[in-house]
Amino acid sequence: MKLLTAEQIGSNVEVFREGVKPSERDASFDYCFNYFQRFREEGRLNDLKTPEQVQESCIQLGFYLASWGMYRGRAYLLQKSAKILEPIIGLIADQPPSFWEIDVHSYSPENIQRLLDFKREIVSLREHKGASDTLVTKIMLGVFGNVPAFDTYFSKGFGYGKFEKVSLSVLLTSIEITLRSLTSLAP
């Protein structure tokens, strides 16, 4: 994995920010993430799966997944309606607040196991048997923001293509190294 300098990171962030517009594809992440986080912040996670709210929850997640390439080609979701996401919405709503707080800096062995357990819960759902790491991690990124999307681009750049214990441990180490190098560059 190639480490970037502080200047390269800053330049990349600026290029990204310049391209983000509310009507562009990248903004669908913000809409999805903010939708689910609002329920977390308001202490209303169970409302995500109520009959009054579950359809909107599915549509928010489904549109984000579609705009991030999960409803194309041979993807099984392509032949389904947003209703197929209801069991996943149930799993999301049932996660304790501490799960929503997991981020890379808190990738302890216990938290890594919790992330992998959530993956196992999704792939054990009858409707989502064998869901790919790409799909699972895009869901987790769009809802919780606690893992990167293990898609082709990330996997190629990161050097690990599977969402597993070793890749999350390496991710933590690489983030720690990057943060130390950025801190050392500060005036």
Question: What would you say this structure looks like, in words?
Answer:
This protein is mostly helical and 187 residues long. The protein has one domain (25-185). The chain has nine helices and no strands. It is globular, with a radius of gyration of 17 Å. The two termini are 26 Å apart. The model has no long low-confidence stretch (mean pLDDT 88).
Characterize this entry briefly:
This protein is mainly α. It has nine helices and no strands.
Q: Tell me about the largest β-sheet.
A: none
Helix content: 55-70%
The geometry reads as globular
**Structure annotation, total helices:** 9
Strand content: under 5%
Decide which structural class fits the backbone.
Answer: mainly alpha
Uncertain segments are: none
Please state the CA-atom Rg, rounded to the nearest Å: 17 Å
How many strand segments? 0
How is the topology of this model organized?
Blueprint: H1 6-19, H2 27-41, H3 54-67, H4 86-94, H5 97-100, H6 109-124, H7 133-143, H8 152-158, H9 165-185
Helix pairs in contact: 2-3
